[in-house]
From TrEMBL:
<dbReference type="InterPro" id="IPR028082">
    <property type="entry name" value="Peripla_BP_I"/>
</dbReference>
<protein>
    <submittedName>
        <fullName>Nitrile hydratase</fullName>
    </submittedName>
</protein>
<comment type="similarity">
    <text>Belongs to the leucine-binding protein family.</text>
</comment>
<feature type="domain" description="Leucine-binding protein">
    <location>
        <begin position="21"/>
        <end position="236"/>
    </location>
</feature>
<keyword id="KW-0732">Signal</keyword>
<dbReference type="Pfam" id="PF13458">
    <property type="entry name" value="Peripla_BP_6"/>
</dbReference>
<dbReference type="InterPro" id="IPR028081">
    <property type="entry name" value="Leu-bd"/>
</dbReference>
């Protein structure tokens, strides 16, 4: 067992202080629209590092996490991660952040250090030393949409997401699937961060049976809470729902992520 090792290290401290540990760059958002998920992501990573160290570390060396704020502009994040890899400050990188950040990080460090990306993503983007753990739309969407169309009779769909690569490609995958099931897309919008609330009336006016939400972070939280507070009844299918999106949503949410699918329960609604 390796004890007395700091679980997280500031990037500046990591640059200045040499260490016999294996340092992993932990890229998670602690600011921006995904900032609310940051503490949970950090806690999960710290738990993993503690378990590794309790079992003897990696190659007999303790593991430390070097925290990088993945909520900043994508190129800024990638530049910091690239510098940490180039200077040998970190020997590997793990990330839970938006896909636009992932694209830039992969471009900056592929083949130079292992990079593990955990969240659902849009597919593609393979590069040397890059490992994806999350679902792609072809695996994630069909079970949930088929269940909603078949069980909940959701025939009219509205697609609403943030305007970046993951929502764009999720929507592109959802449209032919909905058509094949006899469902109709009655509206679709991609919005910049912070602007989802302006679409609430437009979504309600379309009278959807279900809404495919590819909003993320605080945008998803705010929309779900406002939708529930307005007494609107359409089912909401969220591809990136996590615990912060649940309070005050008044039910009607469906999440289809491997975590939920692997639970020993048939309860799919929250």
């Amino acid at each position: 067992m390796l004890v007395g090792v700091a679980a997280t290290v500031d990037p500046l401290e990591a640059r200045l202080l040499p260490s016999g540990s294996i340092r992993i760059g932990l890229v998670v958002p602690v600011s921006g629209v995904l900032g609310p998920m940051g503490p949970c992501a950090i806690n999960c990573a710290v738990l993993a590092a503690e378990e590794l160290n309790a079992a003897g570390g990696m190659l007999g060396r303790p593991v430390e996490l070097v925290l990088v704020d993945g909520g900043r502009p994508a190129r800024q994040v990638a530049a910091e991660v690239s510098e940490l890899v180039a200077t040998g400050t970190v020997q590997a990188v793990a990330g839970a952040h938006a896909s636009d950040v992932r694209v830039e990080v992969v471009a900056a460090i592929a083949g130079r250090a292992p990079f593990v990306y955990g969240p659902p993503y849009e597919g593609g983007g393979h590069a040397p030393g890059v490992y994806f753990l999350g679902e792609t739309p072809d695996r994630q969407l069909a079970p949930g949409i088929e269940w909603l169309v078949g069980t909940r009779r959701a025939r009219r769909w509205f697609l609403l997401g943030n305007d970046y690569i993951w929502p764009r490609l999720v929507h592109a995958s959802a449209r032919p699937l909905l058509r094949a099931l006899g469902a109709t897309v009655v509206g679709e919008h991609l919005v910049r961060y912070g602007e989802a609330m302006h679409l609430l009336d437009r979504v309600a006016a379309a009278r959807p049976d279900a809404i495919l939400l590819t909003l993320i972070g605080s945008d998803l939280m705010d929309f779900n809470r406002a939708y529930a507070a307005g007494g609107l009844g359409a089912a909401r299918f969220c591809g990136a729902l996590e615990e912060h999106g649940l309070p005050f949503t008044s039910g009607g949410l469906t999440a289809w992520i491997s975590f939920w699918r692997n639970l020993f329960t048939r309860k799919l609604w929250f």
